[in-house]
Amino acid sequence: MGRPRIKDVAAYAGVSPKTVSNVLNDYEHVSERTRTVVREAIDALGYRVNIAGRQLRRGRTGMIALAVPDLDVAYFAELARHVMAETERLGSTTLLVETGGRREKELAAVRGFDAQFTDGVILSPLALHPRDLAGRDTRLPLVLLGENDPSGTADHVAIDNVAAAREATAHLLARGRRRIAVVGGETHGPQNTRRLRTAGQRQALVAAGVPVADDLVLPVPAFRWADGAKAARALMRRPSPPDALLCLNDHLALGAVRALHEDGWSVPADLDVVGFDGIEATRFSVPSLTTVAPDKPGIARRAVRLLLDRVEDPAGGPARDETAGHRLIVRESSGG
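-> structure tokens emitted (336 positions)
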């Protein structure tokens, strides 16, 4: 016997196919006795709902795409796990795409990869320019993570990056640190995560009456361990080195801690180090790393909900911005 169908369940239970469909869709007017008979037939035959067929009849694929820059960056891997769990809970499937932070791949994600295999896209962009989103086809639901859409055409989920960096800097200031470098920071260019976190650091310095030093904002080519190590060494070789590093992700921070150790600096005796992202590895480094931890499960829930809302109602009002939570986890690298 092939895969059982609704009509097979109906014949086994002695009811109509419509009644079986009503039970599967949990319609209220079906009697409890009929529900029991149909469910026993489903179990006996091993019937499974054909979700793909159901979705296609509704003009959908049941799949959403999650496009992230790098899966070997722990933050994106952890976030992807939460998104996949949330979509599975809601009856959809996640197609995972790695963009490498390249503009052409991010543009392909905005266009739905020029195919019809996905109902919508959740994208964490690094290279998109504001003009790339202006005039996009809004029939494809799109949710941006981290970066806002200046054209106002896409829903958006992020933490309050300014507040998060301000809180981390205030913690360092409370420990007596005054020369706080921003590893990966930027002061010019598009209003992105790097600029927002740099702005938060500056706000905390100004509030504390500490001079703002442009030379302590150090951009990096990438947000990886080696970039953090190189940046830390460059900063500590200056005539007036910093007494704290605010690194804009945990990979930079962990690379910096390793380089400082190799060069004979003690963390936190000589300087403090703080990261961003709250990845699992920060619990196990030596010293354990103080980090700003975004609510990754909350980001996933909000992004998936926003996307599926758009799938249900593509014209459902203007683009929405939602802010997920974050918390500063103080550990050994800053005296915890």
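Residues 296-312 form the longest helix (17 residues).
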